[in-house]
Structure formats: structure tokens, C-alpha cells
Amino acid sequence: MSEEQQIKENGRQDPEELEIDLMEYVRKLWDVRKLLLKAAAVGLIIGLIIAISLPRKYTVGVTLAPEFEKKSSGGSLSSLLGGLGGLGGLGGLGGLGDADALNITLFPEIVASTPFILELMDTRVTTLDGEIDTTFTAYLDEERSPWWGTILALPGMAINGVKSLFSDEEEDRENTVDPFYLTEKQSQKVERLREAIVADVDKKTGVTSVSVTLQDPLVTATVTDTVVAKLQQYITAYRVSKAQQDCDYQEQLYKEKQKEYYEAQQNYANYMDANKSVILQTVLTERERLQNEMSLAYQVYSQVAAQLQVARAKVQEAKPVFAVVEPSTVPLEPSGVSRKVVMLGFIFFAVAGTAAWVLFGKDFWMKFKNDLASPKEE
Fold it and tell me: How many domains would you assign to the chain?
């Protein structure tokens, strides 16, 4: 136990010794204050170069609250129509209002999908200064990148340039967009937009946030509006597709039954006109048969007409309603890390790195060199 106590006592550092060590560190740093000032100046210059090289980006966000029609026991328009027409059990039409195959949690995947992004490429955009008025895909070529990004991309640009000299096929493919077979340049644009366009869904409330980050504020707001509009169109088309298919079928069936009823009605009228004064039993029997056919055709025709009204109501019920909680606006200030923060960060790391080298790194390096040189001296 005495040895353990001695070790513990040796491990404890006297406050006076700790204060002396701190003062020693302060003295060392004060002695190299000119070096620290030079390091701060170098950090400022590097930070300024990096900050100027980084293009400014603007972010626009939109908040949506999708409201989907829920199945009701008897309050919906389709239920009222079905009840009035005596069609409470229409079988296949009963579930059209519950087209929930596309859940709101899939919104981020939809926005990031290649077909959805490619639909944005033809959007007409104009920069805030009015100098660029072109398609979105052409605008992406005008966006500025840091100088180191251009340097890193030089090998790939050189290879693509050599390829274009020997083949015109790649140039032709650039002018046409095939989602199944994208070119390297088109694929890079799609990846850039996947990073620039972000959708997030609150699973509890269903509130969807869509944000777009680009280098021009007006283009950013325009693209954000386009993304929201296309997302609404996509969801609406998807949800009403099944109901619309059934409605189209009912429309076709309605026309067929209407034609059959009109033909039966015309046959009955023609026969009655031709045998107005005849009282033979065969004539009466044929008249009764034609009348029954007309009545049956009318019953089927009226039922199909009621089913068509229900199907049309189901299509309307299946359409989702999007309440825009926060609309898009042209941003006034850039987003992300400001240039001042970038410069202050480089100054801090430059001074901190220099101070760490003076206090610890230099002695460690000298000791390491001595340890390497000691075996040779022996």
C-alpha cells in the first residue's frame, strides 16, 4: 500500500509547479510573438484566397403540408352518389379513394430520382442580373467552381477532349437525354442536383421541406418553385392513376350501354310505327319482347351512368391537396459559411499550429532526431 500511495503522490502535480509550467509556455510564446504574427498573416492570406475562390451560394426553402383524402363511412361525394344510385357495393370502385401506395415518406427519394431531376433540365431560368437567360441545364455550365476543382478536373477534361476528336457519337449523345444511358457530363449534373435539391419529411406531422442551393438567388427561387410544382404533379398523377383507369373504363362502358339502349329504343319505336293498327298475337308478342329489351337496356344503362358518376367522384377524392406553409422567396443573403468565418478559421489554425510546434513539436522532433542519430554514434 505504501508504494501505491507514493505513486499517487508522485502523480499529483503541485499547483505552483503547474503555474510555473503555464508561465513557461506563455514566455515561450511571447518570445516567438513575431513568428506568431507572421503565421497569422499567412493564415489571413490563405484564408482570403480560399474565401474569394469559394463561390457564393443561396438557399431557398419551401414548406408543404400534404393533405390526403381519407376514406369516410358516408360523408364523401362518392358515397353519397353511390347511396343515391343504390350502388353501395360497387366492388372494384370501393377502394379508389385509398390510393396510399405512394407514402409521403418517399418524397425525398422521388426528388432525388434521375427521371425527376432530368425533368428540371428544360426549365427556363434567368439570373438576377439578367445576363443569363437560358435553360437550367445550360445554366449549370455557367456556375463557377473553385480553382482547385478546375485543376482536379483537368485530366478528365483532357481525356474527354481527346475522345471527342475521334468520335462524334459522344457529342450527339450530349444533345439528347436518355435516362437509361446518360453521358458522363449528364451524370455529373444529375449528381450535382441531387446534392443541391434536398427534401425532408417529418414523419409525425407529414410536413415536407424542400430546399434548393445554387449560386444565383433568382435561379434558386425559380428552380425551387419548379421542383415543388413538379412534385405536386407527380404525386397527383400517381395517386389518381388507378382511379382514372377505372373511370376511363366506366366511361367506355357507359358509351357502349348508351348505344345499346338507344338501339333497343329505336327498334321498339320502328316496330310500333310499322304495326300501329295490327292486333295479331305475333305482333303483340314481338312488341312485348322489344319493350322488355328496351327496359332491360335502360336499367343497365342507368346503373352504368350512376357508376360513372361515382368513378368521377373517386378521381376527385384521390387528388391530394398541398398547403404551402412557407413559399419560396428570392434570398437576399448567401447561405453557408461566410468569408469572414473562413478567414478567421485559417488564422486560428495557423497560429494554433505554430504555437503547438513551438511548445511541443519542436522538442519532440529534436528528440526524435537524436534518437535516430544515437545508434550511429555508438
Answer: 2
In a domain, 268, yes or no: yes
Same domain, 48 and 64: no
Global pTM value: 0.63
User: Residues 21, 100: one domain?
Assistant: no
C-alpha cell at 332: 437576399
As a whole number of angstroms, the distance between CA 246 and CA 93 comes to 8
Distances 10 to 3, 258, 318 between C-alpha atoms, Å: 10, 105, 78
Q: Find out whether 316 and 243 touch, Cβ atoms under 8 Å.
A: no
pLDDT digits (tens, 9 = 90+) for 239-275: 788 788 888 889 999 999 999 989 988 988 888 887 7
**For the segment 276-304, what is each residue's pLDDT rounded down to a tens digit?**
776 777 878 888 888 898 899 899 999 99
Whether residue 344 is found in the same domain as residue 290? no
How far apart, in whole angstroms, are the C-alpha atoms of residue 83 and residue 80? 5
State the helix-helix crossing angle for 147-166 and 184-196, rounded to 10 degrees: 150
For residue 359, being part of any structural domain is answered with yes
In a domain, 172, yes or no: yes
CA distance 254 to 209: 43
Closest CA to 239 of 95, 117, 114, 111: 95
Cβ atoms within 10 A of the Cβ of 15, count? 8
Yes or no: say if 229 and 116 are a contact pair by the CB < 8 Å rule: no
Same structural domain for residues 361 and 322?
Answer: no
In angstroms, the first-to-last Cα distance of the chain is 42
C-alpha cell at 146: 473553385
Strand partners, 323: 65
DSSP state of 338: -
Displacement of CA 262 from its chain's centroid (Å): 52
3 is a domain residue: no
Residue 247 per-residue DSSP state? H
Q: Which of 19, 23, 1 is nearest to 359 (CA)?
A: 23
Domain that holds residue 358: 13-52+339-377
Looking at residue 275, the DSSP 8-state letter turns out to be: T
